Amino acid sequence: MKLSLYSDDLLHAPVDVIALGAFADAEGPTPTFAALDQSLDGALAQACKDEDFKGKPGQHVVFNLPPGRPARRVVVCGLGPGREYGLDATRSYAGCAARAAAKVGAQSMAIDVVPADGAPILGRVQALAEGVWLGSYRFDELRTRDVKPLSLQTVHVGLDAKAVAGLTGANLKSALERGEKVAEGVRLARDLTNLPPNVLHPVELADRARKVARSYDLGFKVLTPKEMERQNMHLHLGVGQGSRNEPRLIHLTYEPTGAGEDVPVLAFVGKGITFDAGGLSLKTGEGMVEMKIDMGGAAAVLGAMQAVAALKPRVRVHGIIGAAENMPDGNAIRPGDVIKSKKGITVEILNTDAEGRLVLADALAYAQELRPTHVVDLATLTGACMVALGRSRAAAYYEDGPMAQAFEAAWNRSEELFWRMPLSAELREVLKSEVADIKNIGDRWGGSITAALFLKEFVDEGMSWAHLDIAGPVFAQSEGPVGPKGGTGFGVRTLVELARELSGEVPGTEP
């Protein structure tokens, strides 16, 4: 699919489908909608009324244009309330348009960039590109029947001259390309999350990471169990020792061209449990069904590393993935075992299903030896997080300081849904062990918080660190405007924006 900027009259674009937006409140029709409706003597507005179209996000109407016009159809997509029309609403609008266009077999589409007061147009262009690519995403890698190629091949992004006044074509093209590169990283993360565990085991995940490294000129290394043993990564090894699929520690490095030692050094650390049966603390059958997604944090790290390598910000970035499969057999770790971590801290294992934090503990220790200025770990870590925040929002843990400022700026630009959670010091008491330095679970209360506090034990004092519990939003339970049911690639956009933030790169100046 090819995206391009389009500055001529959108209503006369030689395409199969024209995509327009409509607000859900008194904002009224957009200028392009109003112009087309007037030329049709009100038929477009009447069609929307007949279809009970309310302008809600994800809602759309397909209208067949009369003969003699360049386009065959119009797709009108809901933008939601005008006061809430942020970048994520733009992304959803574009995704909805792309999905609707593909369903009617359109090969080409022109989509209207709907401006809004106080919103940067470059951000709109980037979000529109992301939405088109994400809305047209399908996971067909394992299908052998009824696989049809994506019909939509060309998308023109329509730009109103007034909205882009003061911006150069280079600025706009850069925003469009940035959106495409970020979306490609998200799509990679979705692919990995959707792969079944018999295909994507730790060694295969390492192989796929190697291919990304080769394609995008990233540094790459992988630690086998013998090398992990030499690094004293006994927690990580312990999680994987019950499976016939060996664990791996995967390390990718992005090195900015011509950068000196003064550039920030960012480490992304992802939980890569390619399947989680719970170990000897066995999950229920129902609880295992979606456990191929327990490597969603690793998928986000790999997707973000691909996007960072494509965008080339001036910041050094390490992507660290702790990959393992958590299975029960005679060699698996047991409740009651005490294991020494890479950092030298001894951990009493009370529940082998609290395994992600064990892998992350050793991965965090490994990452900090690279002397990063900032560390972010991502993990589908706790069901408690979903109990607290639902499936659409992730928990973010960090302390006040440089990380808070940088991370909040990044997540505000990405508009991925996070909620800051407290690192409640009083809950640290429930992690005290009678036989070791710490135990791997507390009681049932505040489970997401105590998991974060466990990880904090393995982070050096003064380190700028954030922990993201992404268990809820990493997997969509149903089709939405920006994708089908399945892996979402959540976290990629925020990680990319964090790299841009730390590099000193900011969105283009708006008129």
Concise synopsis of the structure shown:
The protein has 511 residues and is α/β, with parallel strands linked by helices. The protein is 35% helix and 20% strand. The protein has helices at 31-39, 43-50, 87-103, 121-135, 169-194, 202-216, 225-230, 234-240, 285-288, 296-311, 356-368, 383-389, 402-414, 447-456, 492-503, and strands at residues 2-6, 17-23, 60-64, 73-80, 108-112, 154-158, 219-223, 248-254, 265-276, 316-326, 338-340, 346-348, 374-379, 394-398, 418-420, 438-439, 464-469, 475-476, 486-487.
Structure description:
- With 511 residues, this protein is α/β, with parallel strands linked by helices.
- It has 15 helices and 19 strands.
- A hairpin with an 8-residue loop joins β3 and β4 (73-80).
- The protein is elongated, with a radius of gyration of 24 Å.
- The two termini are 31 Å apart.
- 54% of the residues are buried.
What radius of gyration results from the CA coordinates?
24 Å
Average pLDDT reading? 94
Q: Using DSSP, what is the number of strands?
A: 19
Q: Helical proportion?
A: 25-40%
Low-confidence stretches: none
User: What spatial order of strands do you see in the largest sheet?
Assistant: 7-8-10-9-13-17-14-15
